[in-house]
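Lab notebook, design round three. We kept the backbone fixed and only want residue identities now. Task for the bench partner: fill in a sequence for the structure below.
Input structure tokens:
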């Protein structure tokens, strides 16, 4: 998402370009694959997912939604051809610097929060976050999808 935000800021500073929207689509496709992988790793009956929810969805689900909207918006802009219009809106550099400052402050805040939560080590797994024992997860797996080799 950081790279998508950076390309959008480049669009504001230097004007719209089809290259920029192509980059947004590529970054969003990569982010989507990571989000989908995360979503699929927690699909199991009884599994609460990882971390708290925001408006009923986990952050990795929100990430997929944001990436999908980024792809859709970029595709629409490319189809309409907004970057080819001569009467583009000129944005004042001070406004762009303000947006860039907000973007950097947000990124720094999330980086510090992640460092505070996880330290320099790998973040805790869902079982550690919810204090669920590995035996409870194993029994859910056996209940859901029994191993055919054990029969």
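Proposed sequence:
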């Amino acid at each position: 998402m950081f790279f998508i935000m950076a390309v959008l800021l480049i669009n504001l500073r230097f004007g719209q370009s089809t290259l920029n929207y192509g980059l947004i689509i590529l970054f969003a496709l990569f982010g989507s694959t990571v989000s989908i992988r995360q979503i699929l790793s927690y699909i199991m009956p009884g599994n609460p997912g990882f971390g708290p929810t925001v408006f009923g969805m986990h952050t990795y689900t929100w990430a997929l939604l944001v990436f999908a909207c980024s792809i859709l918006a970029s595709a629409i802009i490319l189809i309409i051809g907004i970057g080819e219009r001569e009467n583009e809106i000129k944005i004042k550099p001070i406004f762009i610097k303000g947006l860039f400052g907000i973007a950097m402050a947000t990124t720094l805040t999330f980086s510090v929060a992640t460092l505070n939560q996880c330290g320099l080590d790998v973040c805790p797994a869902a079982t550690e976050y919810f204090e669920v024992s590995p035996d409870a997860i194993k029994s859910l797996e056996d209940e859901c999808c029994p191993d055919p080799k054990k029969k």
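Keep this in mind before ordering anything: The CA atoms of residues 43 and 49 lie 8 Å apart.
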